[in-house]
Amino acid sequence: MRQRTQVAIIGAGPAGLLLSQLLHVAGIDSMVLERRSQGHVESRIRAGVLEQGTVGLLEQAGIAARLHREGLPHQGFRIALNGEHFRIDMHRLTGGKSVMVYGQTEITRDLIQAHQVRGAPLLFEAEQVALHDLDGSRPFVTYRRDDASHRLDCDYIAGCDGYHGASRASIPPSVLRSFERIYPFGWLGILADVPPCDHELIYSNHANGFALASMRSPTRSRYYVQVPLGEDLKDWPDTRLWDELALRLGRGAANRMVRGPSIEKSIAPLRSFVAEPMRHGRLFLAGDAAHIVPPTGAKGLNLAASDVGLLAEALVSHYHDGADHLLETYSARALARVWKAERFSWWFTGLTHRFPDMDDFGRRMQRAELRYIFESPAAQRVLAENYVGLPLHSGDDGAWAIGEGPPTVPPMAAS
Ligand code: APR
Ligand code: PHB
Q1: For atom 4 of ligand 2, which residue has the closest CA?
Q2: Ligand nearest to the CA of 54
Q3: Disulfide engineering: 220 pairs with which of 15, 117, 216, 325, CB 3.0-4.6 Å?
Q4: Which domains are seen in the chain, by residue range?
Q5: How far, in Å, CA of 299 to CA of 29, rounded?
Q6: Phi, psi (5° rounding) for residue 60?
Q7: pLDDT, tens digit, for every residue of 290-309?
Q8: Candidates 42, 43, 123, 288: which one to mutate for ligand 1, based on the most atoms within 8 Å of Cβ?
């Protein structure tokens, strides 16, 4: 079967779903092709800290009602060093900004529901997706579904199909440059239906390794511990994991920690990765298809959102005003923000984890940097400013909106 749309979107993760919803609000047609089933996509467990800019884009996409009902606004978080806790008052340090705790799984469900309510073309179980004629003016996508071959003609293709997708792989290796850092440990995560041990998140640097206390709701907790690469889940029965969390998070948190059976438990590797450029001809990459961050600081989903915010803005400018400048500069503008979030995620990982090759000097440096942060409002401000999220456009005040364009006041003059 042959079909046509304005923007073909590959992948129904948060990047692809949010892009198609933002385009719909602006009156632009798109069709989303997803390899996996709806059930699979809706049950993936990921991080859950949303920057204000991400919340703004979800509002603009018209899917923020449940997020505002059920999301938990957080104005601070804690850093622990061998049991000693320090609170980073994000709200005060950033002049009133905060983050929202709301699971990525829930955002995905809200977005899928919005698509299905309006009968939007969102196709699950689309196999053998292949991208064609990216260099020409009439790109198209082929795929197989229900034992039949299909062709989707379009003006542009958005590659939102994650790290292992077909989109980035369609760009000739000669024009693609990638940058990567693999970390020598993973995160073992547990989800349990127990109240969180604190009303805010706790990032802990402990002699045994990093630990994080997070949450999904007042009755559902999410915890992580740093584990060596190659660790086997079988060696981590729930009791061992709760004991280790209690040790690494410190006595106060341990006393408040409620233990319960895990409803999900998995180990994820940590990686930093960026592919440049994020555009090839009529293909635009967004989200994990173009970059990966280690989860420390929860920037993955927020970066996916800021990419599609920029891409939607560029497509709106093309279709509404016939102006292609934003499409032409998409890659450079997205990468400028991506690299800053990569830097923060890499730095925050380095500050809070125990590296196997770290000697006494390295540990003293880490301790000195943490103590410096505990004592210096200037250092706390740098951390808080990055944690709540840098502006979408350099020089913005942090509020993201499609169609706003770059500010006219130069950043230095604004302060
Ligand atoms: N064809 C169609 N769909 C594909 C293909 C393919 N060849 N390959 C992958 N996909 C789908 C995946 O099944 C997945 O649903 O693309 C989607 C990509 O979604 P994500 O991996 O969630 O990536 P993204 O939407 O960029 O979201 C980034 O999600 O992965 C987390 O940590 C990440 O929080 C970040 C956010
Ligand atoms: C999570 O809740 O899964 C989470 C929170 C904060 C992070 C990473 C993950 O930095």
Answers
A1: 47
A2: 1
A3: 216
A4: 2-74+97-180+271-352 (3.50.50.60)
A5: 29
A6: -60, -35
A7: 999 999 999 999 999 999 99
A8: 288
